[in-house]
Write a structure and sequence with these properties.
This protein is mostly beta strands. Helix content is 3%, strand content 50%. The strands form ten sheets. The protein has a nine-stranded antiparallel β-sheet with strand order 21-22-40-36-34-33-32-23-24.
Length: 721
């Protein structure tokens, strides 16, 4: 009997394991909320305030959010933090009891204490049922749905998804904050406007309230009837203002009771690519980077490779000369090596020695290596700081470790002294906080020196996008690097002797927005705004069919003989080719505008740049067009008139085809005889130019004919010998 009961209970237990229980199917996260936790969550009609409760709070059986398919809702969360936090939310839209990356929503940047919001759009394919919602915050890195260990907290709730019973306007995203961008840039956002309900929704208009900084790109015709699950799309372009905050609404008018819907649009513009520290005399420094085409002058980027005269300080995780400290946090003292009589003038003082720190610091006096007077991280509040390093350049004050186990073998720190300048180079320098050997950065410092200088020496920082690792650049773009600082500081905590170009504090907030990556970039500092050479106010391109017209404007020119226009296909390995020249204006101190048309290009993507040449033959600057120019596929079949016409004995024939197919181009005389065939093959869509040499034909009238499957075009030309 006992045996039978044992078998029966075992069977019932095994059967119970197969019973589907929605509250026990999901993985259970296990972070520790001792130092940081989520104190409030609101989503639709859900609003829950809580305290730390062991790191995981499961409220899925007691707290519900009611939501509709296709609608967009704002998820608001308040955090109490003990450091830099990362937040994610998951929704089990398909009800499969897993929370995968397709159901994952990440707050885009690290956060500190406070309230944050993000928009969540319910997919039209979401199950019509009750399903799970999970929010999670962890310290230092983004959480996974099943995170175990580490500081943070996870909370679970339920969402009840239903289908609307009438037309319903859905807009995704429900708002757009373009964030902080550099003046002169543009950014765009596509808005998906749909009917997530039942029936037909009629949109009568979509407008932007204030078009000062926002533009609507809309090809729809109004009124627009949107059936169930149908979509229309519009694009909003943000024209970044100069040191200003922009805010307005995109207003959608429909035939529902709530006739107008306001979609908030926000953005901030900062002029971070050029300017000054606002001081006078020897305390004045101007700065401009190689992107600052609106500046009075700006530098160009050029990477310097070491010669036989260079001195290697660190190579392959090992120091090569005597130094103070360690390969991780060290200092190399370079004394008495400038040419006799030469010095570097910095904030009005002359220096003949320089000191290279492993963490992106170049001092002109010895700086201490012991905490708290020195740290691998810059000061908490940025410059100026009396307790940290001063009288120094900070090309990239960041926690660099040349001796790290993941440091690439190509890691190298070196310097070289030339007749009138010196170069210091951090090659493939490993940055703390990464996970792979691709977490390295390369940058250089160029410092002018001269005999008894009368003004502050010019300084250039160069940042190599080409020679920096993919993980480092990803962390830079995602703002997940440690705190870092770029700038200059003179003696002591004197606020008049500093310039802070970029500063990211330990909370993840970027205080100064000077860019350093996205492309190769040079950043120059000098006592005169015209020491950072050449002023190019604008450089733009327009496309008509397969012709590209370049237009550029200069603010002033010095000894300018000409501009060489260079083109290459959109490939960093491709060679630049000079396609034309435009005469310069010599020396003028007023705006001048130039144009050049590059004609008859084939379909493809191209890059352009200007090379400025002075009357002495010196190349003084080159300026790259910011955008790639694209010659698209033609939309119509066409044959152009040959040129020249009349001709002797050669001429060119242009044609365009919009679809792939067999193409024949032949030459016919007055008697209808085919005397030449220029093309007889399958061609892809595009623009084409062919040369015709009639040296073996007699003078007279000829015809050239273009034939495809569905088109025939014939034109006349004259050969006169």
């Amino acid at each position: 009997m006992k045996l039978l009961l044992s078998i029966l209970f075992s069977a019932l237990f095994l059967l119970s394991l197969n019973v589907k229980d929605s509250y026990s199917q999901y993985c259970i996260p296990q972070p520790d909320c001792t130092w940081d936790y989520i104190s409030n969550v609101t989503f639709s009609d859900l609003n829950v305030t809580s305290e730390c409760s062991g790191g995981y709070m499961d409220s899925s059986a007691t707290h519900f959010a009611n939501i509709l398919r296709g609608n967009t809702y704002t998820l608001s969360f308040t955090v109490v933090e003990g450091g830099l936090e990362y937040f994610r939310a998951w929704f089990d839209w398909n009800g499969d009891y897993t929370l995968d990356t397709t159901e994952q929503y990440s707050y885009p940047i690290p956060i500190t204490g406070g309230t944050y919001t993000m928009d969540i759009t319910v997919p039209g394919s979401a199950i019509l049922d009750t399903t799970r919602m999970r929010v999670c915050m962890t310290w230092y890195s983004y959480p996974t749905p099943c995170v175990t260990g580490g500081w943070g907290e996870a909370e679970d709730y339920s969402v009840v998804i239903t289908q609307p019973t009438e037309p319903m306007l859905s807009v995704s995203p429900g708002s757009k904050d373009f964030g902080t961008l550099l003046t002169g840039d543009t950014a765009s956002q596509v808005f998906d406007i749909s009917n997530s309900g039942i029936g037909t929704l009629n949109i009568s208009s979509i407008v932007i309230s204030d078009t000062t900084y926002f533009r609507l790109i809309d090809t729809n015709t109004y009124p627009a009837a949107i059936d169930t699950a149908a979509h229309i799309y519009v694009t909003v372009k943000f024209i970044v203002p100069a040191d200003d905050t922009a805010s307005t609404n995109m207003v959608i008018t429909d035939d529902l009771l709530d006739a107008t819907t306001n979609i908030p649009l926000d953005g901030i513009g900062v002029q971070a690519s050029y300017g000054s520290n606002g001081q006078t005399g020897d305390n004045l420094y101007y700065f401009a980077n190689s992107l600052a085409t609106g500046a009075p002058s700006h530098p160009t980027y050029e990477w310097t490779s070491p010669s036989g005269d260079s001195v290697t300080l660190i190579a392959n995780q090992t120091y090569c000369v005597a130094f103070a400290g360690s390969v991780d946090d060290g200092r190399f003292d370079i004394t008495g090596q400038l040419p006799p009589g030469n010095s570097i003038k910095f904030f009005g003082n002359d220096y003949t020695n320089f000191y290279i720190g492993t963490n992106g610091i170049i001092g002109f006096t010895q700086f201490p290596l012991e905490f708290p007077n020195y740290d691998h991280d810059p000061p908490t509040n940025g410059l100026p700081s009396a307790t940290n390093v001063d009288t120094a350049l900070f090309p990239l004050w960041l926690d660099i470790d040349f001796g790290h186990v993941n440091a690439p073998t190509s890691g190298r720190l070196w310097y070289e002294i030339k007749n009138d300048y010196l170069v210091i180079s951090y090659d493939s320098a490993y940055v703390r906080g990464g996970t792979s050997s691709d977490n390295y950065v390369s940058f250089q410092i160029v410092i002018q020196h001269s005999n008894t200088p009368t003004m502050n020496s010019r300084v250039i920082f160069r940042y190599s996008d080409d020679y920096s690792g993919s993980e480092f650049k990803s962390r830079y773009n995602a703002n997940t690097l440690r705190q870092h600082l770029i700038g200059l500081e003179g003696t002591g905590a004197d606020a008049s002797q500093m310039l802070q170009y970029r500063f990211r504090n330990s909370s993840g907030e970027i205080i100064n927005h000077g860019p350093i990556f996205g492309s190769n970039l040079a950043l120059a500092f000098g006592p005169n705004e015209h020491m950072l050479p050449v002023d190019l106010l604008a450089f733009d391109a327009s496309v008509y069919k397969n012709d590209v017209t370049l237009t550029w404007t200069t603010g002033w020119e010095e000894n300018n003989e000409r501009f060489d226009i260079q083109r290459r296909v959109n490939n960093p390995e491709a060679q630049w080719k000079t396609v034309g020249s435009v005469k310069g204006s010599g020396t003028v101190h007023e705006e001048r505008t130039y144009t050049f048309t590059d004609k008859k290009l084939v379909t493809g993507k191209y890059e352009y740049r200007l090379v400025q040449v002075d009357f002495d033959g010196n190349v003084t600057a080159d300026h790259n067009l910011k955008n790639v120019v694209e010659i698209g596929i033609p939309t119509v079949f066409d044959l152009s008139q040959n040129y020249p016409n009349p001709f002797n004995p050669t001429t060119k024939i242009d044609f365009q085809i919009p679809v792939e197919g067999l193409v024949k181009l032949n030459i016919i005389d007055m008697a209808g005889r085919e005397v030449a065939t220029l093309v007889n093959e399958t061609l892809v869509p595009g623009y084409y130019t062919y040369d015709f040499n009639a040296s073996k034909l007699a003078s007279g009238i000829y015809f050239y004919r273009l034939i495809t499957k569905n088109n025939v075009i014939t034109k006349k030309m004259a050969l006169i010998k």
